[in-house]
Design a protein that fits this description.
The protein is mostly helical and 276 residues long. It has ten helices and four strands, in the order ββαββααααααααα. It is globular and about 65 Å long. The two termini are 25 Å apart.
Length: 276
C-alpha cells in the first residue's frame, strides 16, 4: 500500500529487520568484540531450538540474574560505607538544602509529579506506551522489552529493600504521605530510569535525524533525573539511595538492550538466509 506515492513503512518482523537495525549509522547486529560474537552464536542456537523469541527471553532471564548480583554487590559496598557514616557528608547536606527551598505550592507540585513514578502512575504510563508501540509496529517486541524492563526493575527493588533495610530519613524531615518500606534502593528512581530508557530506545530505533534522537534522549534523561531528585526533595529517600538506583537501573537497561540486539541479530541473519 502506498501513500502519496511512497511505500508505507514495513511492520512486524520485516519492519524490525529493515528499520530497527541502524542507529546513527551503526548496525546493532554487528558485534565487533569476541564476546559479542559468541553471544550472537549462542542466540542463534537457542532460537533454532526454542523459537524466535527464545534468545531475547533467555538473555533477559540471564541478564536479570546478573543485574540482581550486581545490585547485591553494590548493596554490600553501599552498606559498608553507610555503616562507616561515609554518606553523611553527602546525604545530610543535600536533605538540608532540599528542606530550605520547600514551600506549600512546590510541595504539592512535587508530590503530584512523584506519583507519576509510583506503583500506580508508572504502570499506567508504561502500559499505555507499550500498547501504542506494539500496535503501531504490529510486533510483540515492545511488549516483551517493556515488560521485561519494568518487571526486572521491580524485582530488583522488591528484593533489595528487605535485604539491606536502610532506614529512610526521619518523618519529621519528610513531606506526607509517608512511606514505610526500606530506603535502598529508591524504587521510583530505578523504575523511572529503566522505563524512560527503554521507551527512548524503542523510539530512537525508528527516528531518522540526530536532532530527534537527541531530543528523545534528553526528555528521558530529564524525566528520570527529576523523578529521582523529587524523592530527595520530599525527604522520602537519601540522595545515595537515588544514585545507587540510577546506577543499577542503567546496568539493567544495558542488559535489556543487549538482549534486543541479539534478537535483532538472529532475525536479520534468518531474513538474509530466506532472501538468498
Amino acid at each position: 500500500m502506498t501513500t502519496e506515492g511512497k511505500e508505507a513503512p514495513e511492520q512486524g518482523v520485516r519492519g524490525e529487520v529493515s528499520q530497527d537495525r541502524f542507529v546513527a549509522g551503526q548496525d546493532l547486529t554487528n558485534w565487533k568484540s569476541p564476546a559479542g560474537r559468541t553471544l550472537a552464536r549462542g542466540a542463534e542456537k537457542a532460537t533454532s531450538l526454542l523459537g524466535p523469541y527464545a534468545a531475547l527471553i533467555i538473555t533477559l532471564i540471564v541478564g536479570l540474574a546478573a543485574a540482581l548480583s550486581l545490585a547485591l554487590v553494590f548493596g554490600e559496598v553501599y552498606e559498608s560505607v553507610t555503616e562507616a557514616d561515609g554518606v553523611a557528608g553527602l546525604d545530610d547536606p543535600v536533605l538540608a538544602a532540599a528542606k530550605s527551598v520547600r514551600s506549600p505550592a512546590l510541595d504539592s507540585a512535587t508530590t503530584a509529579y512523584t506519583n507519576i513514578g509510583g506503583t500506580v502512575g508508572m504502570p499506567i504510563l508504561a502500559v499505555g506506551i507499550m500498547i501504542f508501540l506494539a500496535t503501531k509496529r504490529r510486533s510483540w517486541t515492545p511488549v516483551i522489552l517493556m515488560l521485561a524492563a519494568g518487571l526486572g526493575s521491580l524485582v530488583i527493588t522488591i528484593l533489595g529493600k528487605p535485604i539491606f533495610g536502610r532506614a529512610r530519613p526521619d518523618m519529621a524531615d519528610a513531606i506526607p504521605p509517608y512511606e514505610h518500606s526500606a530506603s535502598f534502593p529508591s524504587g521510583h528512581s530505578l523504575n523511572s530510569i529503566v522505563i524512560a530508557g527503554i521507551v527512548a530506545y524503542l523510539i530512537i530505533l525508528r527516528l531518522k535525524t540526530l536532532r530527534a534522537r537527541v531530543v528523545t534522549i534528553l526528555v528521558a534523561a530529564v524525566f528520570a533525573f527529576t523523578m529521582g531528585l523529587s524523592r530527595v526533595y520530599l525527604g522520602h529517600h537519601w540522595l545515595t539511595d537515588v544514585l545507587a538506583a540510577w546506577a543499577i537501573g542503567v546496568a539493567w537497561l544495558a542488559l535489556v538492550i543487549t538482549a534486543h540486539r541479539l534478537y535483532l541479530t538472529v532475525r536479520t541473519r534468518r531474513h538474509r538466509a530466506v532472501v538468498s
